[in-house]
Amino acid sequence: MKDKFTYNTEMAQTYETNARISIPTYDALFGMVQSYFRTEISGEDASVLVIGAGGGKELSTWGPANPEWTFTGVDISEEMLKIAQHKTNQLGMSHRVNLIHGTINDLPIADEAFDAASCILVLHFIDNVQEKLELLRSIHAHMKPGAPFVLVSAYGDRDATELKDRLNVWRSFWLDAGKPPAVVNEMVNTGIMKISFLPEKQIEGLLRESGFTHITKFFVTGLFGGWMCHAGGTDGLDIECDV
Fold first, then answer.
1. Poorest-pLDDT segment among 2-11, 80-89, 116-125, 218-227
2. Which residue numbers delimit the Methyltransferase type domain (predicted)?
3. Which end of the chain is more exposed for a tag (fewer CB within 10 A), N or C?
């Protein structure tokens, strides 16, 4: 079966290499999410929504080990979707993967909501806080009540020493990988510090405001954190209260 898109081998290799430098626990992260989904999904069949599916890491990790799962992946980058499409074809999973070039608003209207959803390394590329909230609300609207959701994003208070210390750790990842100091400094100034950081409590607040409950931080590496939670019901009975 031919790829839906032309596959760029060099781009794919560069993306995965850089991801593993920036997040040394990159591969373990996706295994952790799979374990969480498996414990939370009732029955073997499951429909999984993947926001930011370009690159195909979710598909290549979760797909082969869970042959009864189906996936709907969304990404605004056509180039990244080429990588996901290639991996899908290589794994023989095309019959249970639907890749959509666009945003969550481009999802087809369906009668059934998703059994699980993920948004990994996407939220920090959205600058506007209201747009972040709208994305999380849209994800929640496409999920079954009680379904598990995982969010992974860069986080931190730009003015806090804590973020500066973690930034130094992130910088060391790249130096240890052989990048010259001048190049790493440029990556910090024109790259990583251009993304949208929010304090941990604000991210958790956005999740609650979007309708998610039982919010638990489960992952931290360098500049990035991960939260697992559930889609709350529509009757308001599942909404958490701060005390």
1. 2-11
2. 50-150
3. C
